[in-house]
Amino acid sequence: MDEETRLIRTGLANHTLAKTVNPPIQRGSTVLLRDAASLYDDDQLTYGITGLATPSALQAALADLEGAEDVTLYPSGLAAITGALLAVLKAGDEVLVVDSAYKPTRRFCDRLLSRFGVTTTYYDPALDADALMALATPRTRLIVLEAPGSLTFEMQDIPAIAQAANARGIMTLIDNTWAAGFYFKPLAHGVTLSVQALTKYVGGHSDCFMGSVATSDKAVAALLGEAMWDIGWSVSPDDAYTMLRGLRTLATRLPRHHENGLEVARWLQARPEVARVLHPALPDDPGHAIWKRDFTGACGLFGVVLKPCSQTAAKAFLDSLKLFGLGFSWGGYESLALHCDPQLTFRSIPVNLEGPLLRFHVGLESVEDIKADLDQAFTTFRGASPL
Ligand SMILES: *Cc1c(COP(=O)(O)O)cnc(C)c1O
209 in ligand 1 pocket by Cβ < 6 Å? Predict the structure, then answer.
């Protein structure tokens, strides 16, 4: 053969791969089939958009984590939420969404889902199962849950809601990112769809986007798979490898986030500048009893309500933090902070807080260094004329 051809055809030899600890990063769009008949055989893997070695290994590991029969991967956490909604909803349906849901979830419902004839009703996270079911109509197809809620950290009685919804033939979907699939197992409590932004704790290093939807309902799993093909989403094998690597240390990292987070939360509770700490693992938190019953731990993310003060003073506090980065997202190894009030204006049910709301993600640093950083920032804050 000519050199031109040889450069294209050599080095492709199919030899057995050495057994390494981690699965190979198998990159591929085209999948070569054995014979012409196989090209149209639906029982074979015919295209690399799903089913290659690395994403498949991640799906198997996540199915184990979530106690699920089936896991679908998406290019981001938000895509996992929107992908699940698109897969199970149709024109004429109504969806009940908790008012404390991740804000982009609400944006998708209001802007895009509404264009396709799906209506959204936002409900108070404080509603119990009976009060929530009283809002359901014959058109209600899905209830979206999030516990603790984004920014305000309300707990919901997930087992009771899932049971009541199942009895009425209504599906439930939970955004389980806070528990990282580790500290809470929604499917074991009857929830239909458990969604995670793997971007947060599973990745764990603030460097990769991905989302997953876990279910044990075969019919729902089939809908998710179809929507995946219809929409044309796929995840990169390199990213799947990164997520799998993060997953290996999830159970080692999370207890440190739990301990550090809770210690910093208690320390903040005792500060004279703080009105309230929103953290369900604190015994005086309104959601504590549910958290204690259903969850086996807490991650490093919680809220802090300052005593009445200006937004300028709250920003001066954030600006003087040195160890904490200021930024969105969370779940990485590092500490982060932000102020939340601009996001709370979108809520349907007004949130009444004593003062500005800050959110902290407590990372894996030494907890003494974290407290020292907060302490020096409070010194600046007091100098910034709080009122
Ligand atoms: C970050 C986040 C998401 C979305 O994840 P992305 O990968 O950033 O799209 C979804 N839900 C919650 C609760 C989140 O914090």
Answer: yes
Determine the Cα angle at 263 with ends 262 and 264, to 5°.
90
Integer Cα distance of 175 and 80 in angstroms: 10
For residue 60, how many C-alpha atoms fall within 13 Å in the half-sphere facing its CB? 9
Stated as kind and residue range, the H or E segment containing 242 is helix 237-248
Whether residue 85 has its Cβ less than 6 Å from ligand 1? no
Q: For 276-335, what is each residue's pLDDT tens digit?
A: 999 999 999 999 999 999 999 999 999 999 999 999 999 999 999 999 999 999 999 999
Q: Where are the chain's structural domains?
A: 36-248, 250-383
Phi, psi of 231 (to 5 degrees): -85, -30
Burial of 293 (0-12, 13-18, 19+ CB in 10 A): exposed
Write the pLDDT tens digit of every residue in 142-200: 999 999 999 999 999 999 999 999 999 999 999 999 999 999 999 999 999 999 999 99
Q: Is 78 in the pocket of ligand 1 (CB under 6 A)?
A: yes
Q: Any residues with CB less than 8 A from the CB of 229 and at least 6 apart, and which?
A: 49, 50
Fold (topology level) of 250-383 = Aspartate Aminotransferase, domain 1 (3.90.1150)
Buried b / exposed e over 116-151, threshold 16 CB at 10 Å, is: eebebebbebbbebeebbeebeeebbbbbbbbbbbb
242 lines ligand 1 (CB under 6 A): no
Sheet bearing 211-215, strands edge to edge: 70-74, 211-215, 193-197, 171-175, 140-146, 94-98, 119-123
Atom 4 (ligand 1) nearest CA: 77
Residue nearest to atom 8 of ligand 1 (CA): 77
Give the 3-state secondary structure percentages of the chain, helix then strand then coil, rounded to 5.
40, 15, 45
Q: What atom of ligand 1 comes closest to residue 178's alpha carbon? A: 13
Residue 72 DSSP label: E
User: Which CATH code fits 36-248?
Assistant: 3.40.640.10
Q: 3-state DSSP call for residue 88?
A: helix
To test the ligand 1 pocket, which listed residue (194, 199, 235, 340) has its Cβ within 8 A of the most ligand atoms? 199
Give this prediction's pTM. 0.96
CB 89 within 8 A of CB 142: yes
Closest-CA residue to 198 (of 331, 367, 24, 354): 331
The backbone torsions φ and ψ at residue 196, rounded to the nearest 5 degrees and listed phi first, read -135, 140
